[in-house]
Amino acid sequence: MKCCLSLMLGLCLTLPLWAWNAPGHCVIALIAYDKLTPVAKTKVDALVQALPAMPGGSRDICAAANWADNIRSQQINAFTTWHYVNQRLRLSEKSRRKYVISSPNVVWAINQAEIVLMSPNAQTYEQAWFIRFFLHFVGDIHQPLHTVSLFNERFPQGDKGGNLYLIQSPIADNLHSLWDQGVGLVPDSMSMRQIRALAKQLQLQNPPSYFGAQIHVQNPWVWANEGYRISKAEVYRVPYGGTPDQTYISRGQAIAAARLTLAGYRLGYLLNLWAAGTLVPTQ
Questions:
Q1: Left if phi > 0, otherwise alpha if psi is -120 to 50, otherwise beta: which for 27?
Q2: What are phi and psi of 148, to 5 degrees?
Q3: Residue 130 CB neighbours (<10 A)
Q4: Does the reported pTM lie above 0.85?
Q5: Taking 70 as the threshold, does the pLDDT of residue 11 lie above it?
Q6: What burial class does residue 254 get, using C-beta atoms within 10 Å of its C-beta: 0-12 exposed, 13-18 middle, 19+ buried?
Q7: Rounded to 5 degrees, what angle do the CA atoms 171, 173, 178 make?
Q8: Which CATH topology does 2-276 take?
Q9: Collapsing DSSP states into helix, strand and coil, what is residue 58?
Q10: pLDDT exceeds 60 at position 154
């Protein structure tokens, strides 16, 4: 088992297009890191650096936050359903009807990561593995299209979180990929300097006081339900096969900015609780 895990941890750092893209996950991780207590920073740094450096990457928080996508790029699919939760979305319905397709899902995965991080029996190696999952999945669940699958006559089996929902755009050819890039806010081509600047900019534009008590909401189901409401009200406003207009793009980038920032704040809050020994895994 340990040999298998070592192989997985040695995979190359790449820039896949699942969930928030690599710059998006890095932005979330940097925002969270800015909010850590000195004790939390020490503990996070120790776990991030506890595993061998990945070829082509480094043992920093951005590389760690993207690791769960990197292993998918190597066609290791054992953890694929951990990245999302498909709640049945029908745009014509007035009332919300939750229907979870995938299990285990991202809500379950976040809970499992919290359990391992808080376990007195878990070894450093195991916690170093699961903090990578935790950094990534808290980010994933704040991407609206990681919380729903649209069902209608065109998609009787669901649109797989917008992956099958085709659009015409220079940014992406499907709705999921468009939102992975924050509707253009976090393009794949961003440099590390640009990523760091955006992380700072988002915190200035959306300070913790803007979100207030939302930052302290620890239940991942609440976060998933936020994504459901955003998807229903905003994400699917562009017609299938259509082109997002400037109003949609501007509104989408504002939503993405808020979700990236809130994800960072929540992640930082939870890591501080973990470092203090007061994190309670949410069932």
A1: alpha
A2: -145, 165
A3: 20
A4: yes
A5: no
A6: middle
A7: 50
A8: P1 Nuclease (1.10.575)
A9: coil
A10: yes
